[in-house]
Design a protein that fits this description.
Layout: H1 20-29, H2 34-46, H3 52-64, H4 66-76, H5 91-98, H6 100-117, H7 121-143, H8 149-158, H9 161-169, H10 171-183, H11 188-196, H12 200-210, H13 215-222, H14 231-246, H15 253-267, H16 275-293, H17 299-316, H18 332-338, H19 340-351, H20 359-373, E1 378-384, E2 390-398, H21 401-407, E3 409-411, H22 418-424, E4 429-431, H23 439-447, E5 453-460, E6 463-471, H24 481-502
Antiparallel strand pairs: 1-2, 1-6, 2-3, 4-5, 5-6
C-alpha cells in the first residue's frame, strides 16, 4: 500500500499550516478540561515552601487521590528516606519527612496519571507505560546514587507527555499516526511529522514549559541515548527505552531479551548498570506500578499487569523477582478504615512535646487521621479569636476545604449559627446520626448543600477553644457509632497536644 502523499487532515488540523505546533497548543489550552489540569499542576509546583500554608495546600492535593496518598507514604517508607524503625501510614507525616519539593514532584507526576488514565483504554495504556518509565527512572537513580530520585520520577513520568496529549486531545490524528507506523513501516517521528507537522516531543516540551516544569523535565523529553545533556537526562532516556523494549507482549522471549540488550548497549556509556541491577530496577518498578495501576474491581487491569510482568521475566529471567500478585481485597475506603489504629498511633507519638512537633503539625495530622479514618469528605479545625467574639476555621483538609474555610467565620452570638451553637454545648455530636437536626441546623446545612455534619468541641483545661468540624457530602451513608467515637478520640488527642504545650 502506498504511503499517502499528503498529511492526514482532521478538522483539528485545518488552518495549522503556518505554525502547526502553536495552533494545536492553542486548541489544547482552550479545551474544556485541560485548564483545570493546568491549574492543579501549576498550583502544586508553586507550593515550594515547607511552611504551614504550603503543607496544607499540598496535603489537600495528595489526600484528594488514593494513589497520591499511597505514593507519598510508600516513598517516605523507602530505604532512601526512612528515618525510624516503624513504617508510617500518615501522608502528612510522610510529607513533613520528605519536604515540599519532593512531595510536589510526586504529586505532579500522579496528577498527570490520574487525569489521563481515566479517559480511555488507549490512554490508560499510555499512562501505564509512563508510570513504568517513571518508576524505572526512580529505581535507576537510586542505584546510581542520585541525590533526588523523585526528580528522576518526575522526568520519567513526563517523558512521553507529547504523545499522551495528542492521544487525549486529537485521537483521530493519533490513530492516523499509528496507521502510518503499522501499515507503512514509518518511524514514529516521521509519522507524527506527516500528520501533525511536528513530533510528539515538540508538543511535550511546549506543554511542560507552559506548566513551569523544571528544566530537567524539558531535557528529559528531548533526551536520547546518544545525546543526553546530563546524567538525569540519560536516566530518563534509558528508562523510556527500557519500557519500550520490555513491555511488548507480542514478542517472543528471545526477541524481548534481544531488545533489552540493545537498550543496555546503547545506554551503557552513561547508565552503568549490571544485568542483575537492571532486573532490580524492573522489579521495583513493577511493584510500585502494581500498587497504583491495578484496580481490585477490574479483572482486565490484573490481566494486563500479569502480561507485563511476564514479558519482563521473559526478557530478564530470574533477575526480575516481582510477582503479579493480586491487589488487596479491600477497596481504598475500607483500607483506610483498617488503618485507623496505625494512624492513631502515629498521631499519639506527635502529641508528646518531646517529639518536637509543632501544634500546627499535630493539628494537620489529626485532621488527616479523621478524614481518612472516617472517611469524611472535609475536616476543618476551628478556633475562637483572642477576644472570643469570632469562631473561624484555621485549617482544613478534603475536597473543597479551602472554599469552605472562607465561609467558616462566625460571630459568637445567637447569629453565629449551628457550628457556634454546637461548639458552645461542649458535647460532640454528629447529625442526624445522634439526633434529628433542629430547624436552624437544617437551614444551615441546606445552605451548604449538606445532609450530615459533625462538630467536636475542643476543651482545653476546662475551656472551649474551638472545634473539629467534619462532613460527608452527596448521598454518603451516615457514620456508625464506632466512627463517631473514633473522631472523638482524635479530637481528644488534639486537645491533649494543645494542653501539654500550653503547660511548657
Amino acid at each position: 500500500m502506498a504511503v499517502p502523499d499528503q498529511p492526514h487532515q482532521s478538522p483539528s488540523a485545518v488552518g495549522a499550516d503556518a505554525d502547526p505546533l502553536r495552533t494545536r497548543l492553542s486548541r489544547i489550552l482552550e479545551g474544556a478540561d485541560f485548564p483545570a489540569l493546568s491549574r492543579q499542576i501549576i498550583d502544586t509546583l508553586g507550593a515550594m515552601d515547607d511552611d504551614a500554608a504550603s503543607l496544607q495546600r499540598l496535603a489537600n492535593v495528595v489526600l484528594r487521590e488514593y494513589s497520591l496518598t499511597l505514593s507519598v507514604v510508600r516513598t517516605a517508607n523507602s530505604v532512601h528516606y526512612r528515618r525510624g524503625a516503624r513504617p508510617i501510614q500518615s501522608a502528612t507525616h510522610a510529607m513533613m519527612m520528605l519536604g515540599a519539593r519532593t512531595v510536589r514532584q510526586l504529586a505532579s507526576s500522579l496528577l498527570l496519571f490520574e487525569n489521563y488514565s481515566r479517559k480511555s483504554p488507549e490512554l490508560k495504556e499510555l499512562m501505564l507505560l509512563s508510570l513504568l518509565t517513571a518508576n524505572h527512572a526512580r529505581a535507576t537513580a537510586l542505584r546510581m546514587q542520585l541525590q533526588d530520585p523523585e526528580e528522576a520520577h518526575l522526568c520519567g513520568m513526563f517523558r512521553n507527555l507529547g504523545e499522551v496529549i495528542v492521544a487525549a486531545h486529537f485521537p483521530e490524528d493519533y490513530r492516523a499516526i499509528h496507521t502510518l507506523m503499522t501499515e507503512h513501516d514509518m518511524s514514529e517521528a516521521s509519522a507524527a511529522k506527516r500528520v501533525l507537522g511536528f513530533q510528539f516531543n515538540d508538543l511535550g516540551v511546549e506543554v511542560s514549559r507552559h506548566w513551569g516544569m523544571p528544566d530537567s523535565v524539558v531535557q528529559g523529553i528531548r533526551a536520547r541515548a546518544t545525546a543526553s545533556a546530563s546524567l538525569q537526562a540519560a536516566i530518563t532516556a534509558f528508562s523510556h527505552d527500557l519500557t519500550q523494549a520490555l513491555y511488548r507482549v507480542e514478542l517472543s522471549p528471545t526477541e524481548l531479551a534481544h531488545a533489552v540488550e540493545i537498550v543496555v548497549e546503547q545506554h551503557g556509556a552513561k547508565v552503568k548498570l549490571t544485568r542483575e541491577q537492571i532486573g532490580g530496577v524492573v522489579t521495583d518498578a513493577l511493584e510500585e506500578t502494581r500498587e497504583l495501576f491495578v484496580n481490585p474491581a477490574i479483572a482486565t487491569d490484573r490481566l494486563r499487569f500479569r502480561q507485563l510482568a511476564g514479558a519482563a521475566r521473559s526478557a530478564l529471567g530470574d533477575s526480575v523477582t516481582a510477582t503479579a500478585g493480586e491487589p488487596g481485597e479491600l477497596d481504598p475506603q475500607n483500607r483506610e478504615i483498617a488503618l485507623r489504629p496505625q494512624l492513631r498511633q502515629e498521631l499519639e507519638m506527635l502529641v508528646d512535646p518531646a517529639s518536637g512537633a509543632a501544634i500546627g503539625a499535630v493539628l494537620l495530622q489529626g485532621l488527616e487521621v479523621i478524614m481518612r479514618g472516617g472517611p469524611f469528605t472535609r475536616v476543618l479545625a476551628c478556633f475562637y479569636s483572642t477576644d472570643r467574639l469570632q469562631l473561624a476555621a484555621r485549617t482544613g483538609l478534603g475536597e473543597g476545604a479551602e472554599a469552605l474555610i472562607d465561609q467558616f467565620n462566625f460571630p459568637v452570638s445567637v447569629r453565629g449559627g449551628a457550628v457556634v451553637s454546637l461548639t458552645q454545648q461542649r458535647q460532640a455530636v454528629y447529625l442526624p446520626a445522634d439526633r434529628a437536626m433542629s430547624t436552624a441546623e437544617q437551614r444551615w446545612a441546606f445552605g451548604l448543600g449538606l445532609t450530615q455534619f459533625g462538630v467536636f468541641p475542643l476543651i482545653v483545661l476546662g475551656k472551649v477553644v474551638g472545634c473539629i468540624y467534619c462532613d460527608r457530602t452527596g448521598d454518603a451513608t451516615l457514620p456508625d457509632r464506632a466512627t463517631v467515637r473514633f473522631v472523638k478520640s482524635i479530637a481528644d488527642l488534639v486537645v491533649d497536644a494543645i494542653g501539654r504545650r500550653r503547660n511548657l
